[in-house]
Write a structure and sequence with these properties.
Elements lengths: L13 H14 L5 E2 L11 H11 L13 H15 L9 E4 L2 H7 L10 E6 L3 H9 L3 E6 L15 H6 E7 L11 H14 L2 E5 L21 H4 E6 L12 E5 L1 H14 L5 H12 L3 H23 L12 E5 L7 H12 L1 E2 L1 E2 L10 E5 L4 H14 L4
Parallel strand pairs: 1-10, 3-4, 3-5, 5-6, 6-7
Antiparallel strand pairs: 2-8, 7-8, 9-12, 11-12
Amino acid sequence: MEFSKRMDHFGTGIFAALAERKAERLKKGGEVIDFSVGAPNIPPAPHVIEALTEAAKDGRNYVYALRDTDELREAAAAWYERRYGVTLDPRKEIVSLLGSQEGLAHLAMTIVNEGDTVLVPDPCYPIFADGPVLAGAELYYMPMRKEKGYLIDFQEIPEDVAKRAKLMVVSYPNNPTTAMAPDSFYEELIAFAKKYDIIVLHDNAYSELVFDGARCGSFLRFPGAREVGVEFNSLSKTYGMAGARVGFCLGNRQVVEKLDTLKSNIDYGIFLPVQKAAVAAVTGDQSCVETTRMAYQRRRDVLCEGLTAIGWKVEKCAATMFVWAQIPEKYTSSDQFAMELLDRAGVLVTPGSAFGPSGEGHVRLALVQDADVMERAVRWIRDSGILD
């Protein structure tokens, strides 16, 4: 059999490979505390679950949805108005996604042709790069350096690359570095995109997981943002709906229309009970958002303070559901450290190399375990002697 050349880019996904190592250890009777995949373990609020279950009881809701209901798009528009101060046309500036991952996989197909250039951050969440590659794009990695606050420096992008680029993927609060961006960054981003006629995709999945009293807004609130691009947002982390896949593409009408058209040819819409749950999430009692935020902040504090106390200095993240940690000095490979951490301590993390060339020297820990499990993980790492 012969397969497409595009598959040469894809090996076994890092999370699948880590899951295999985890399964091997469990099969041998070992224990594992898993910080590898950002799979939220905080369930939706009761009113969201109730909306889903009540709709699921109605046999009429098992037909193809085909498109978004008016109720869903209007709820998303009201959510963006209330939360971010951004007014959107629910019929022309919003389309749902089967989770942000699906949108990130498909958006580039509506924008780039074979060989076109797409600018992606480095390090970056893998689908930021994989989606454009599926569309046949050539990637240019924009380094995000710690000494620059992990902010993309647009001055470092060669002019010939900028002139060729058709799409740029940006995300703050950032996965995996956990960095946030000031207003001045977005102003510079919009000016850069206008100058070189580049479409911007801003992923805003972690806008509610911002700690220590800070706040995060939307890319779309800045003047000119809708002229150059769109924002993706997700209900996975904010409302605990990771398995009930709902996200949104919002902003530029032309981009939204193209993605809507593509999706009408490749999927049949979101299950109607899930749409009902999404409406309940963004229009109902919002106290669950603060409860979720504080739970992640508590986990962050327990993990980072605990690891620092036993000799692995790990900085507290300002946002997201992740910790981006430099590996101990005696290690030179993030893959090696991650595998030894699993083998010796039973703690599973994601090596930074999985997030691009600049990720080497780090590991990402997802805050997806309760605080007591965080404490146990710290003890296991201490007792393993891996830090000695």
